[in-house]
Amino acid sequence: MEPAPYSVRYRILCDLLDSHTALAYDNAFIVDGESGICLAEDEKAAVLDTVLLRNWNGETSCLDSVTFNILERNRLKHDDFDVIGCLGDGQFGVVEAVRFKMSGQVFAMKTIEKTVAKRAGRLSLSLERHVHRLSNSSSLSPCPNLVAAFQTELSLHLITTYAECGSLWNRMCALFSDTKYAGRMLEGEIQWWGAQMVSAIGWLHNHNIVHRDIKPHNFLIKSDHHLQITDFGSAAPLYFTFPDETPCVPWQFCVQPVGTPDYLAPEVLILAEQAVIESKQVHQTSGSHILQHSEKKGYSASIDWWSLGSTLYEMATGKPPFFAETIHETYEKLITFRSDDLSFPTYLSSELVLLLKGLINVPVKRLSTATMIQKSPFFQPIGWIDNFPKFFYSPLVLPDMLGNEQLQTNFQQSIQEDEFTLNHFFDYSDISSVHLTPVSPSSSAPPVWSQWVGWSFHPDPKSLEVISAADNSSGNDAFMTPIRNKLTTCPFTPDIMNRPPAPLLPSTHSTKKQVFQELLHCVQMSAKKHMMRGKVKTKSFTKDTSCISLLSDPGMVLIETGVSHQQLQERHDVLCGQLHHLDRQLFKLHKLLKS
């Protein structure tokens, strides 16, 4: 029997859920600042998830079997989508291009197993869902919209709008294959992408969110040559310790390194080192005062601007500013960075060099807001409206540009032909904290399954209706640019615009995991090295201690007192052996990454 149209199913589902609102547990996925958004939809989601989870966990059903079957039959499920191809297969989830059967529209669907989410415990599921949902409420949002979310007994699924032209990294890779450019991007094109990147990052910061993994891979290209920022698995909230201070990431989000080595700001690594050192002290010191997380400051949102600077540098020169043969070498370059360390090729314009110097700098000298960056001479020709570059933004809903057979053929060809394969949407090459601790309406402890209540999001039928090509056509306006204060065409027409993004090869996710493990190992080894130096200065942490003071003196770290010279020498010998082993492992990793 043919399923009922989604609009009919949606009405039946809403009527059923509206009549059972008293059944719901509290929404476990509400984050700060979201409590007033789409309250009715949140209530429906909580009811739906509560009923489903109770049934799946063998609890007494709060609905009779007939009513439950009606609910199950009409909710959005995996069976409503056809999988076209795999876009990414990361450590904790898979992202696929899917087609909604009832309309033919193409979306991106991310799937994560619940067992993995519980075991990893560090995925910012709530914040990630929140960012995509924020996009729904803004016509100028620079990230993919949240289309739908649903769950099964074993997995969570997130449906977002699909960026059909791959990532900025794809574009950069195309330049490497062209001998004319040798991997370098023209400055006119850097302006085009850079203005949009500044706007996207600034939009996140205005919503008190820091991305923490800014890199070319995490900017998606739409068919109108506009960028969307994605991959919020590393994201963290920003909080004001005091009203007149710069908002910072809470300390507990800073205790492990996040992001990608070539683009990391030094303070991310330095605070991770400091957390390792303090962790050792907790075990070695009795009765000492240890500051609570709430008393400490993390790094600020300016870490995203450092990463943007590293990205722009790579776009202009063909390689990141701190590129090295091993992760360990890159790490050392970052934690010992000084403002005058960076060199620039002579072919770069003075305006671009000035911008890069302002971004790739110590925190106290860094360009740290979107407004400051927009005033840079490099972006002087750009006209800004509401912090966005002045050009036409086409609707975020993707038209059905390719037939199903043709799209599947393109995915097959991409798997066979593309050397560069990337996860364009959700990378999770880092560690982020997530707190899924729902509050039960009962005075007793909430059931374990209640941590998944509130995940579901059922869209209005209009979001899933067929959209004609005429409705989505934006004519030449979609290719307009703000460069030079007049509208001109986009500065290039890359071949990647004619096909979908390349999917990941199956082995890529394990390589990324190894890279992160090596980075974490570097942090731990570096922290131990600092602790074992006999002449290292000690410093007691106070409420005013921040990563800025650490960066002003990288040698200023905490060590335990009362340790003999012989003990330090023994530890030094052990550490040398560990570092030798690490160097061998890094060499193997480098060979693996190049293969």
TrEMBL record:
<feature type="binding site">
    <location>
        <position position="118"/>
    </location>
    <ligand>
        <name>ATP</name>
    </ligand>
</feature>
<feature type="domain" description="Protein kinase">
    <location>
        <begin position="81"/>
        <end position="379"/>
    </location>
</feature>
<dbReference type="InterPro" id="IPR011009">
    <property type="entry name" value="Kinase-like_dom_sf"/>
</dbReference>
<keyword id="KW-0418">Kinase</keyword>
<keyword id="KW-0808">Transferase</keyword>
<protein>
    <submittedName>
        <fullName>cAMP-dependent protein kinase, putative</fullName>
    </submittedName>
</protein>
<dbReference type="InterPro" id="IPR008271">
    <property type="entry name" value="Ser/Thr_kinase_AS"/>
</dbReference>
<dbReference type="Pfam" id="PF00069">
    <property type="entry name" value="Pkinase"/>
</dbReference>
<dbReference type="InterPro" id="IPR000719">
    <property type="entry name" value="Prot_kinase_dom"/>
</dbReference>
<dbReference type="InterPro" id="IPR017441">
    <property type="entry name" value="Protein_kinase_ATP_BS"/>
</dbReference>
<dbReference type="InterPro" id="IPR045270">
    <property type="entry name" value="STKc_AGC"/>
</dbReference>
<dbReference type="GO" id="GO:0005524">
    <property type="term" value="F:ATP binding"/>
</dbReference>
<keyword id="KW-0067">ATP-binding</keyword>
<dbReference type="GO" id="GO:0004674">
    <property type="term" value="F:protein serine/threonine kinase activity"/>
</dbReference>
<keyword id="KW-0547">Nucleotide-binding</keyword>
<keyword id="KW-0597">Phosphoprotein</keyword>
<keyword id="KW-0723">Serine/threonine-protein kinase</keyword>
